[in-house]
Design brief:
4 helices; alpha+beta; single chain; wza like fold; 197 residues
């Protein structure tokens, strides 16, 4: 009987030695969705109206949040997405001037939107936001990681509905294709901590 208990104890001990705690992957939820960016002062866009050269061109949003558009005149665009603006132009042009106008908009510069990258990067600072910008793009703009960077402990601070949220993003794992990409939003602050090893 004593030998049986000894054998059981040895089996339990062996099982315990073979078990290792699996490190938790930082949570990236919520941040993977691409948020539609809204227009603001200083943003530059290219508006194209199919088969209408005179209505197509490059437009900058004024400090008052407006653009001056042919036929329509001053139009408030601040707070609109590019899709919102395209729909508005199609509606206004279709009401008086064109039949079934086809409008497309490409944002060339998001000067009103910024993201910041600090910590263990070579060129920390604030950078102009780009549509569908990923965390890897932001780190690249900041000159890449330093040798002391804890890449998989990178975190993003974001203000949502007046509440500050923090996301831990495994950037190295993303670069290696091991997890989904993380899309930034205007105003995000990226911080890369120093590795303790």
């Amino acid at each position: 009987m004593k030998r049986l208990w000894v054998a059981v104890a040895l089996m339990v001990a062996a099982a315990g030695c073979g078990w290792k705690k699996t490190p938790q992957t930082p949570v990236v939820s919520e941040g993977v969705a691409v948020a539609a960016s809204t227009l603001g002062p200083g943003d530059v866009m290219e508006i194209k109206v199919y088969d209408e050269v005179e209505l197509s061109g490059i437009f900058a949003v004024s400090s008052g949040g407006t653009i001056n558009y042919p036929l329509i005149g001053k139009l408030i665009v601040e707070g609109m997405t590019s899709s919102d603006l395209a729909e508005t132009l199609q509606k206004k042009l279709g009401e008086k001037y064109l039949r079934n106008p086809q409008v497309s908009i490409v944002i060339r510069e998001y000067n009103s939107k910024k993201v910041s990258v600090f910590g263990e990067v070579n060129k920390p600072g604030t950078f102009r936001y780009e549509d569908n910008m990923t965390i890897i793009q932001a780190v690249s703009m900041a000159g890449g990681f330093t040798k002391m960077a804890s890449k998989n402990q990178t975190n993003v601070t974001r203000l949502e509905n007046g509440e500050e949220k923090k996301f831990f993003v495994p950037v190295e794992a993303i670069a290696e294709g091991k997890t989904r990409n993380f899309f930034l939003r205007p105003g995000d602050i990226v911080y890369v901590p120093e590795s303790i090893w």
